[in-house]
Amino acid sequence: MELSGPGLGAPPWAPASPFARAVREADALEGDLVVVIRLECPGKWLEPGGTHRAERLFAVQVEVWGGTLLVTTLETYSDAWLTVDTRGREQPEVHALNAPRLAAALDGISALLGGPPEPGEENRYAAPSTTGFRDVRAEGPAYDDAWGTFETLDRTRLLDSRLPESEDDYEQTADGPVRYLAVRRHGRTLGFVWAAADDSAAGYVPRTAAGDEAFDAGAAWLTALREARRSGLTPLAALRDAGRRPAPPEAGVIAREGPLEAPSLEALEELSGRY
């Protein structure tokens, strides 16, 4: 049996919650089975300038093998616990605010399960430890530009997987300033529709902290940009059209303020990737 992404609920142990129902279903099964429950958890990270929310800060996966072996895995999707962020820049203040929170969480999990955590494998961003993540500043990150090497490609892949192939996309890269409009739903920013200030390109940048909703909205806006290009609009005209266009529910809505301007597409991606 496998259950993925039911949400924790409030509280998760309430009889009608998805988590409680999953536990009851697992208890009713017979035989030599593996039960896997995976929960994606929103949360907040701290910075000297304020508090920020991510829709998928952690994921918790619980595996029960044959009713005798329990394996619990904690994954994190934020670099707030690291001494060096995913762009390879040192962030001692951010680390000082957040790393003790992760260490306390691991202590609580260890006390609940009766044993210390086993660190996962090192990756391109971080080196896990029993208390969180090791300080890699002395040895340097695994890659000089992990964001440009991996993260940008991953975000493009997630967007492309939601769209049919097409030859109607605008150019997706820009060398100079870009103008952009924020896409929001229920008060949260999902991403940014943008166009190059020199009218040479247009696209959509998802806000990573918004989770899958950012990519679902992006598919809708990229489809709208394709329609604008087919109708003969230039990138900047397509951006203006996006601000007036009625959008489907999954696309969110364009914020009233704007368009705003960023000095480069990289600066806009920095904004979307961190906050």
Mean pLDDT: 84
Structural classification:
alpha+beta
Major β-sheet annotation: 5 strands, antiparallel
H/E element order = EHEEEHEEHEEEHHEEH
CA-atom Rg in angstroms: 21 Å
Shape: globular
Low-confidence stretches: none
**Strand-residue fraction?**
25-35%
Number of strand segments: 11
What is the percent of helical residues?
A: 25-40%
Distance between the termini: 36 Å
The helix count comes to 6
Outline:
With about 280 residues, the protein is an alpha+beta fold. It is built from 6 helices and 11 strands. The radius of gyration is 21 Å and the shape is globular.
Tags for this model:
275 residues; 26% strand; alpha+beta; 11 strands; four-stranded mixed sheet; 6 helices; five-stranded antiparallel sheet; single chain
Commentary on this structure:
This protein is α+β, with helices and mostly antiparallel strands and 275 residues long. It contains 6 helices and 11 strands. The strands form 3 sheets. Strands 7, 8, 9, 10 and 11 form a 5-stranded antiparallel β-sheet that branches. Strands 1-2-3-4 form a 4-stranded mixed β-sheet. The longest helix is centred in the middle third of the chain and has 22 residues. The radius of gyration is 21 Å and the shape is globular. The mean pLDDT is 84.
